[in-house]
Design goal:
The chain has one domain. The chain is 56% helix and 3% strand. The protein contains twelve helices and four strands; from the N terminus they run E-E-H-H-H-H-H-H-H-H-H-H-E-E-H-H. The N terminus is likely disordered.
C-alpha cells in the first residue's frame, strides 16, 4: 500500500488514533480543494471512503467546527475577543482582507502566548505593541528565544508579515489577488521578498509534496505534516490563499498548544503546593500538634 493510499487508514492525532475524526478532518479539506478547482490526484484516492465516513459534514457546516482536534479555535477566538468562526470566515474574504485579517489574528495569538508563558497579564499592552516579525526585538524574537517557535514557522510568519506590509502600504493593492501579487514579485536574486522566498515559506521549506513525510508509523500520520502536504499541493496549483490559510492552522495550533501546556503546568504546581500543605498538616497531626481539619 502506497503512502498516499494510506490516507484511507486511521490517522494519528497526538499519538492517538481517531478513525472517525480523521475522516471529518479530511472531508472539509476535500471540500476546500474541490471549490478551488485543485486537482489532488492520488492524495484523495480515498474520497469514497471519506464520503461514507464523514456523514456529519454538510455544505453549511463551518470547517473544523465539530472536530475535537481543532476545537481549540473556539477557545482561541473567544480569548482573543474575535467573533466565533472568524478563522473559518477568512476564506470568504478577498485576498487583501484575508492577508490583513489573518496577520492580525496570528499577531494577537502571539501576544496571547507571550503573556501566558511569561505570566505577566499586566504586560499585555506593552507586548501587543511589539512588532510581530522583527527578528531582534519582535514577538517572534521572544518566542524563538524561548524555544516556542521552530524555524519553518518563523519563516512562515515573517513572510506573511512581508506580504501584509507590501499590500497595506500601497492602496492600489486593495483589489490585487495573491496570484497577481506573486506574479509581480522579483526573482530569487532580488533583495527583500521574492518568488523563491515566498514559495519556500509557504511550502514549509519543501520543494514539492514528495518531500513531506506525514506517516509516522503503521497507519499513523502527523496532522501538521498532513496539512503541509495539502498546502504544498495548493502552492503548486497557485492556490496561495488556501495554502496560507492551511499553514496558519499549524501556527495557531502550535501557539494554543503552548498556552494550554503552560496552564496545565501551572495547575500541576497548584496541586503540588496543595499536597505539600496537606502532608505538612498530616505530619503535625501525627506529632500531636494542632491539626486544621478544614484544610482537608
Amino acid at each position: 500500500m502506497g503512502r498516499r493510499d494510506r490516507f484511507s487508514c486511521c490517522l494519528s492525532f497526538g499519538g492517538v488514533d481517531f478513525e472517525e475524526d480523521s475522516a471529518l478532518f479530511l472531508r472539509p479539506l476535500q471540500q476546500i480543494f474541490y471549490k478551488a478547482s485543485v486537482s489532488l490526484g492520488a492524495a484523495f484516492r480515498c474520497s469514497k471512503f471519506l464520503e461514507r465516513k464523514a456523514t456529519k459534514m454538510t455544505e453549511n457546516t463551518p470547517f473544523f467546527l465539530d472536530i475535537p482536534q481543532f476545537s481549540f479555535f473556539k477557545d482561541l477566538e473567544a480569548e482573543l475577543g474575535v467573533t466565533p468562526a472568524f478563522f473559518n470566515g477568512l476564506l470568504e474574504e478577498d485576498d487583501w482582507s484575508f492577508v490583513i485579517k489573518l496577520h492580525s489574528l496570528i499577531e494577537a495569538a502571539a501576544t496571547h502566548l507571550l503573556v501566558e508563558v511569561l505570566d505577566k497579564p499586566e504586560a499585555q499592552d506593552v507586548i501587543s505593541f511589539l512588532e510581530l516579525s522583527n527578528s531582534r526585538t519582535g514577538k517572534i524574537a521572544f518566542l524563538n528565544s524561548m524555544g516556542l517557535l521552530d524555524s519553518n514557522s518563523k519563516r512562515f510568519i515573517k513572510t506573511l508579515s512581508e506580504v501584509r506590509n507590501k499590500l497595506i502600504h500601497d492602496v492600489s493593492n486593495v483589489n490585487l489577488s495573491l496570484k497577481q501579487f506573486v506574479a509581480n514579485l522579483p526573482d530569487a536574486d532580488e533583495k527583500g521578498l521574492n518568488k523563491k522566498g515566498f514559495n519556500k515559506a509557504f511550502k514549509w521549506g519543501h520543494t514539492d509534496e514528495s518531500k513531506v513525510q506525514p506517516q509516522k508509523g503503521e497507519d499513523q500520520y502527523d496532522v501538521h505534516e498532513l496539512i503541509k502536504l495539502f498546502a504544498i499541493i495548493c502552492m503548486k496549483s497557485s492556490q496561495y490563499k488556501i495554502a496560507i490559510w492551511l499553514g496558519s492552522i499549524i501556527i495557531l495550533r502550535q501557539f494554543y498548544t503552548q498556552v494550554s501546556h503552560k496552564r496545565f503546568k501551572s495547575e500541576l504546581r497548584q496541586v503540588d503546593d496543595r499536597l505539600i500543605e496537606l502532608f505538612t498538616n498530616l505530619g503535625e497531626r501525627l506529632n500531636g500538634e494542632k491539626f486544621d481539619e478544614s484544610s482537608w
